[in-house]
Amino acid sequence: MINTYEKEGKNVKKKRLFKKIYSICIAFLVIGILAACSGQSSSGSSAGSGGTKQYKIVTATTTGAYYPVGGVMASILSEMEGYNFTAEASGGSQENARLIDSEQAQIGFFGADTLYNAYNGHEAFKEKPIKLAGLAQIYSNPFHVVVLKESGITSIADLEGKKVAVGAPGSGTSGKAKLILESYGLIFDENMKAEYLDFAEGSEALIDGNIDAVIISVGLPSGNVQELATSHEIELIGFEPEMTKQIMEQYPYFTETVIPRGTYNGIDKDVTVISAPNEIAVDPDLDEDFVYEVTKMLYETKYKEFVASHASMKDSTLEIAPNTTVPLHPGAERFYKEKGLIE
């Protein structure tokens, strides 16, 4: 006859066995959930309420053109059934590349120079190239070098020994400023002082006399430059023809452009400057059909709304869209082939 203690011992062992089995089941369940989440992350989206897929578009500071264009873009693309897009401010092109690389975003705005450098592992990306795929070229960013009229600065060479606001840390403006100023023999923190300030901060420092010039690479017209030109007499510093040629030979993604007279208050002559195209790039691992639909939505279904998102977008035509600095995403490539824009 089994005594009471033996029965109780057997019951305890059974309970322990059941607990072990339960714990193992829970562990497998958690692993399955984590694997599913990992799968969602690698495809570039996460599921929101009701199974809606979430995508993030990274832009730049709220004062530039990328941010409002990205906002309209997010609104347009959120009309795609089952998807929700959000546009977020960022430090600019360099940060956008790293956000996409780390899967914190799926779509981003870039200056052609940063896109080229990220993809090919140059400059700030020497230690780690970042694979990105082209979606579209949109418009160009003239390189504004702004000084107060009273400064006496009349050329970029005059910036030697001066304090210059070169853009926010990690921004496309700061990347372009470094390359262009180096072409003039101006080296950050050697024979000129680089201050990493966005244009709003730089303008304030310029007015206060804490810096000598402020640089911004932005589409025309720049609201920031307009605001500064309304309250103070400014000058835009142009590029000499021989330097323009030299810079474009060294960096093939740069082009020559003109800021027309009258674009800003007090600027009564055309100013020839260096310019870099702006582009939209995506995570190359995004699904081909998805990127095809995104491209079609922007350049066919809602094209008028897309190009009306900012004054800079007036030059954003379907014809220039496929001319991206990095290889097109297969989904975008398919759309442009259907339109007869590429072979």
TrEMBL record:
Q: Is Hydrolase there in the keyword field?
A: no
Q: Which Pfam families match?
A: NMT1_3
UniProtKB keywords: Membrane, Transmembrane, Transmembrane helix
UniProt keyword Hydrolase present: no
User: Which superkingdom is the protein from?
Assistant: Bacteria
Q: Which residues cross the membrane?
A: 21-41
Instruction: Please identify the protein, giving its name as recorded.
Output: TAXI family TRAP transporter solute-binding subunit
Which species? Bacillus yapensis
What high-level taxonomic lineage is stated for the organism?
Answer: Bacteria, Bacillati, Bacillota, Bacilli, Bacillales
